[in-house]
Structures are given as C-alpha cells and as structure tokens.
Specification:
Layout lengths: L7 E9 L5 H4 L1 H6 L6 H20 L1 H17 L20 H16 L1 H17 L17 H16 L10 H26 L4 H8 L10 H16 L6 H14 L5 H15 L2 E3 L3 E3 L13 H14 L4 H11 L11 H14 L9 E6 L2 E6 L8 E5 L8 E5 L6 E8 L3 H4 L5 E11 L4 E5 L4 E3 L3 E10 L3 E9 L4 E3 L5 E3 L5 E6 L2 E9 L2 E12 L6 E3 L4 E4 L1 E7 L2
Antiparallel strand pairs: 1-6, 1-8, 2-3, 4-5, 4-7, 8-21, 9-10, 9-12, 11-19, 12-18, 13-17, 13-20, 14-18, 15-16, 16-17
Length: about 550
C-alpha cells in the first residue's frame, strides 16, 4: 500500500503471542497480590498461591523456566535500565511500555517461589481464621458479623481446591485448618438447612453447591436431606424461567445429591444436552453462548457462568471437547492477564487449572533481521520478552525471520509511521480520526463550531477535540498534534486525563502528545486542550493550519 508523501518511518516492532497457559500463570499474581483482605479475596489469594505451588511441583517446563529466571534476576536485578533524571517517565509514559513486562515477570517470579508462597498462605489463613466469629460463621471484614453467604462461598471455594488437589498447604497446620472447616460446615448447615433454605428458597442453590464438595467428610442428616429434596423439587418446577447460569448450577447440584436412577437426575442430563445444543461454535472463537444471564441475575459474571457450565458438563460426562472449546473462547476474552473481577478471575484459574493440560506450548524464540538491525522476542513467561521495538528510519523492506524451538511461532512484524493523514496508509478501514474545533463566543457565552471558512481574531479562545472511531480495540496509541505558530496552549501542565477515554497528555513546545494504552471499539472524543490565538502580527488567521499525526502500523502475521 503506497504511503502519503509526508509519511516518516518511525520504528519497527516484533511481537510473539504468549503461550496459551500464560493466561493462567499471569492471572496468579493479580489474585495473589490483590491489595484488600476481605474473606472473599483472602480465599482467592490462597487459591492463587496454592495453584502456583501445584504448578511448580508438577510442571517441569515451569520449573526449568523458574531456574533460568533465578539466574537472570541474580545477574541483572539491579541493573535494569531506567530513564535519565532529566527525562522522567511520568512525562513520556509511552517510553516505559517495555518495562511493564519486566514488572509482570517479577510478580510471577514471586508467586512461583514456593517457600514465599507457603509463608504467604499461612499469613492469609491466619487472617481468615480471625474472621470466624463465635458462632463459627465468617464475616466479610474484621469487626463484622457472621454472614451466611460469604461463609458458604469460602466453604465452596475450599471444596473446589480440595477436589483439584490444591490444599497442598494443609500439612503445615492441618489440625487447625480441619477444625476451621468443620466449624464452618456446621455453621452453614445451621444457617441454611435449618433456617435459610426455608426462608430464602431462591438462594438455596449456591449453598447446596458449596456444601456438595464436603458430602463425604460431613454427611448431612436425614432432616437436611429432606430439606434438600424439597429445595430441588422447588427449583426444578421453576427451571424453565432460570438463566443458563442458574440452570448450570441446578444441574451440578442435582447430579451431586441425586443418584442416576432418580427422575431429577435424568432431568439434569436432559437440560445439559439442551444447553449444549444452544451453543455457538466455530474453530476460531471456540464455544460460547449468546446469553449468559438475564437482567435479574447479577450474581455471576460471564466468566463465572462459563466455569459453572463447564462443571455442569463435567458432571454429565460431556466435558472433553466442550470444555476445550469453552477455554478457547475464555482465553480470548481476558482483560490483560485477569478478568472482570477477582471472583471471576478465581473461577477461571480453577477452570483452566483443572483442564489446562492440553494447552502446553513449547518455548519459542523469534528473530527479525533487517540490515544492521535485529529484534528478538520469546514466549518464555519468566525470562523472555514478547515484544521488541527499535527506532528504525531506514527504507529497507526486506526482513529475515528466524525461529528456534518446536512448533509454529505466531506474532506480528510492525512498521510504524508518522503521517498527517493516517487514513491513507492505514490498512484497516475500521479506524478514522477527525478533528473538531470550537471557539468561545463572548456574546452568547457558548461554544460555536469553527470550519475552514471561519476567520479568527487575536485573543480568541479555541477548544480542539479529536474524534476517534474504531471498529476494534486499539492498544498503545500515540497521537502527536503539532502546534501552529499562531497558537499558544492555555493549559501548560502535562498529566493524566480521566473521562470517557483515559489518556496521558503531554504538552510540548511543538504541540501536544496524547498517549492511551487502550482505546475500546466505538466512538470516543478526546479534548486535547484549549488554545489561545496570540500572534500579534496577524490579526486574522485560518484555523486549519493545524494538523495531526497518528502512529499507524502495517502488520504481518508470522507462521513457520
């Protein structure tokens, strides 16, 4: 595609897609180092750290990567590159993008350190024990009262961990932990079987699900089972109006409390087949459903819904290909390295951890060579860098690609350009950027639009905005708006700007630079800042002397 005459080559970038199992590993630090300590988040931290310990004990490739990382940290930990003092990172945050991967790797290294993880788990357990009240129920926060919902939630999460073999910390203080669980089960039985289920039948499914993980360790008495039968009958009578999420929960609970010969068990199998038939399936995006919950069901996020659906299919022996397809969709829906909340991240960690053995990818290194320039990337989670960028103003278009490691390398090779008209060279027609200019009318006390025919006068105040429209999300966007010699900025301070499109605004002598690490699909408007027409020798000035640059890119997928 031909470039516009003013296009200037800025640099070249190379990237490689991370391993598929990175979605699990990189979510662990987010959970383990979350800043708050309520009962829900303490349980999530314990789950993340236990998962990390399990991975380090069972996955040889992660063990080898960790050993390499230990040598790397020892050799370079204190020598990491930093920006000069007179060129602070805060004023040019886009120059520090490459440091983000180092921070993520350092966090993952800390989580995978088993001795550190075991010590952290003990600390989190002590905090959790302190939340257990005199009646043996858990409060949300320290100083609160026992809450039946968070109590059963913690009970269910430890049940999931027990099923997955993640209670690998019990040996350090097994008696205390077992007594904690025993007391928690007793409290939940009293709160739900003897009170809660009769008073609040709609909330019974969550408790029955949590309690189902401990049926062998603590068998419910006859009265509790009678209440369970009554609740299941109630829910199956209303199952037709339930969301897919609650239907999945009903399937799980029914198949755990009922025998295969029971009528309700057969209904559960039939409902699972019906849900499976409603799925949307394709080889690229995997398996997902159009509707995950109705407007009245705000208990579960989409990610948690998918985890419950996977467990429902597992309970009804339809798990293999279905769950693999669901994971394929889930791994494309993540937000950075975690999901929409700590609770949903915990749900996905549990799901991927149980079924992720088929997602193991080899370590691959990819090199791009162009003239005297060379870029190297790797999908090694602890020591490799998945992105490489360098200034490259040459006109060379021939690039040699070399790969080490088994299997295909998937990634991109990108050439970056500055241009006043990005639409002419951007290979994606789904991106447009337009400028809107208004001036303040001192008579009407309101802003009015300015176009190429408008004649401005000295001292007038202008407001210039950019309207960005994209049909897909954009990452790491830098916009350079060059200043006309006739304009001076009203606001001269650089800083982070919040609003519909959060971004960093850097005010320079030659204009304004805007940096956004993420622009969602749709239409977003950005007000760069106000300008004052101060050119004394020119009384009248046409506004469209201003032009805007946008870093644009050409991308080539790499397969080998």
């Amino acid at each position: 595609m031909p470039l516009s005459a003013d296009a200037k080559r800025y640099g070249t970038g190379l990237s490689i897609l991370p391993k598929r199992q990175s979605a699990l590993l990189n979510a662990l630090p987010y959970m383990a180092e979350y800043p708050w300590d309520c009962a829900e988040q303490l349980t999530g931290k314990i789950q993340a750290l236990s998962t990390a310990i399990h991975i380090m004990r069972t996955d040889k490739e992660t063990q080898q990567s960790f050993e390499r990382a230990k040598k790397f940290v020892g050799a370079s930990g204190a020598n990491s590159a930093a920006l000069p003092e007179d060129f602070p990172q805060a004023s040019v945050p886009w120059l520090a993008i490459g440091q983000q991967k180092n921070k993520e790797q350092a966090a993952l290294f800390r989580v995978l350190d088993t001795s550190r993880a075991l010590s952290a788990i003990e600390g989190h357990l002590d905090k959790l024990y302190s939340l257990q009240q005199a009646d043996k129920g858990l409060s949300w926060f320290s100083g609160g009262e026992s809450n039946p919902w968070i109590s059963q939630y913690v009970l269910g999460n430890f049940g999931q961990m027990n099923k997955a073999g993640l209670l690998n910390f019990k040996k350090s203080n097994e008696d205390k932990f077992n007594q904690f669980l025993k007391s928690l089960i007793s409290y939940c039985d009293q709160a739900y079987f003897h009170t809660g289920l009769k008073k609040y039948p709609e909330g019974g499914l969550e408790f029955l699900w949590s309690r189902s993980y401990w049926l062998k360790e603590s068998v419910p008495d006859a009265g509790a089972m009678a209440v369970t039968d009554s609740m299941l009958t109630y829910h199956w009578a209303n199952a037709g109006r339930y969301s897919i999420t609650r239907q999945a929960l009903l399937i799980i609970v029914t198949t755990k409390y009922k025998s295969p010969e029971d009528t309700l068990y057969r209904k559960a199998l039939q409902l699972a087949r019906s849900i499976r038939e409603q799925a949307i399936e394709d080889p690229v995006n995997g398996i997902r459903w159009k509707v995950f919950s109705d407007q009245d069901d705000l208990t579960y996020s989409t990610e948690e819904s998918m985890r419950l659906l996977a467990e429902a299919f597992e309970q009804t022996s339809m798990q293999d290909e279905v769950i693999k397809g669901m994971l394929q969709w889930i791994l494309t829906a993540r937000e950075e390295h975690h999901w929409s909340s700590t609770r949903s991240t915990a749900a996905i960690i549990q799901l991927i951890g149980n079924t992720g053995q088929g997602l193991q990818d080899p370590i691959i290194q990819l090199r791009a060579i162009s003239g005297n320039n060379e870029w190297t990337v790797s999908n090694d989670l602890l020591t490799g860098s998945p992105v490489a960028f360098g200034n490259d103003t040459s006109s060379l278009k021939l690039v040699q690609l070399k790969k080490t490691g088994e299997g295909p390398a998937r990634g991109s090779l990108v050439w970056y350009y500055f241009t006043a008209d990005p639409q002419k060279i951007n290979a994606d027609p789904g991106l447009t950027i337009k400028k809107q200019v208004t001036r303040y009318n001192s008579i009407t006390k309101a802003p009015e639009a300015v176009d190429e025919k408008t004649v401005l006068k000295q001292g007038e105040l202008l407001s210039i905005s950019l309207v960005i429209e994209t049909d897909h999300e954009l990452r790491y966007v830098l916009i350079n708006d060059r200043r006309s010699s006739a304009l001076e900025p009203v606001e001269t301070s650089s800083g982070y700007v919040y609003g519909t499109l959060p971004h960093y605004r850097s005010v320079r002598d030659d204009g304004v630079r805007l940096f956004a690490d993420f622009i969602p699909a749709g239409i977003r408007s950005v007000m760069k800042c106000g300008w004052l027409l101060k050119e004394r020798s020119v009384m009248e000035w046409p506004v469209y002397n201003v032009c805007t640059d946008l870093i644009s890119a050409r991308t080539v997928s790499v397969w080998s």
